[in-house]
Specification:
- This is IclR family transcriptional regulator.
- Keywords: DNA-binding, Transcription, Transcription regulation.
- Pfam families: HTH_IclR, IclR_C.
- The structure is a single chain.
- This protein is an alpha+beta fold.
- It is built from 10 helices and 9 strands.
- A 6-stranded antiparallel sheet has the order 6-5-4-9-8-7.
């Protein structure tokens, strides 16, 4: 059988790319608010036929991609194991975690680490202690870039194309304080760049404020941001801002040193 014919047949019977697309659709059905799904909801959220979901999910359970302890499906432990190998979690998190811990010890409220993923911020790490804020996303969740301290700390050092993509995606109003125009966002990002840290005062969640600062890699490009987030009465920007900026600067040096050590080529030995 020719490669073309084999690829065509694979798409039809689901043995190759079609099967991967169906598995991806099933995985995409899960999110922070849908951690466990019965078959009917998995069918609804994946958009696949019931028989296809049932058959594909059974194979994914065998592979460890899904788990089904009762009558509901959930993400399997194998994917959790693999997620630890993702560079953003393995390298960035390991380099920055000590500074997040120091910042939490000083602020005594939630600290977070985030990276820009498309037009949203992916929460990579979070330390909350015993005083958790249920309205905040968990690790692996997404928050809007335009109205979050983490997002604006990254966008202030990003190129015009990245900022433009966020604007084009829509500056959705989350609270009465949310910035919703491109002009206002541009002014705010200029202020963030000049000051060195971003301040979100109840723009994402009522009663919650956030101070964030950027983290840079060994090339000098912004790669992430860390933040202190909590009740507005506890997150005072003039007091917390300098501490957050210092923590981010130290984290940048640690991450840059780690990445530079990995990326730097070994010198060639002279030929004998």
């Amino acid at each position: 059988m020719s490669p073309t014919a084999r690829d065509s047949r694979s798409d039809e019977d689901g043995s190759a790319s079609g099967a991967l697309e169906r598995a991806a659709a099933i995985l995409d059905a899960f999110d922070a608010t849908h951690r466990e799904l019965p078959l009917a909801r998995l069918v609804e959220r994946s958009g696949l036929p019931r028989s296809t979901v049932h058959r594909t999910a059974a194979r994914m359970i065998e592979l460890g991609w899904l788990d089904k302890p009762g009558d509901k499906y959930r993400i399997g432990t194998r994917l959790f194991e693999l997620s630890g190998l993702v560079p953003v979690r393995h390298e960035l998190r390991e380099a920055v975690l000590p500074y997040l811990q120091d910042l939490y010890a000083a602020a005594r409220t939630t600290v977070q680490l985030g990276v820009l993923d498309g037009t949203q911020v992916l929460v990579v790490e979070k330390i909350s202690g015993h005083r958790q804020l249920p309205m905040l996303d968990q690790v692996g969740g997404f928050i809007p870039a335009h109205c979050s301290g983490l997002g604006r700390a990254i966008l202030a050092w990003s190129d015009a194309g990245t900022v433009g993509a966020v604007v084009a995606a829509g500056l959705t109003r989350r609270t009465p304080r949310t910035i919703t125009t491109a002009e206002a966002l541009e002014r705010e990002l200029a202020t963030v760049h000049e000051r060195g840290w971003a301040y979100d005062r109840e723009e994402g969640n009522a009663g919650i404020s956030c101070v964030a600062a950027p983290i840079f890699d060994f090339t000098g490009n912004v790669t992430a941001a860390l933040s202190v987030t909590g009740p507005s009465a506890a997150v005072l920007p003039d007091r917390i801002g300098p501490a957050v900026r210092m923590a981010a600067a130290a984290a940048s040096r640690a991450y840059a040193a780690r990445r530079w050590a990995v990326a730097r080529p070994r010198p060639e030995l002279p030929s004998q």
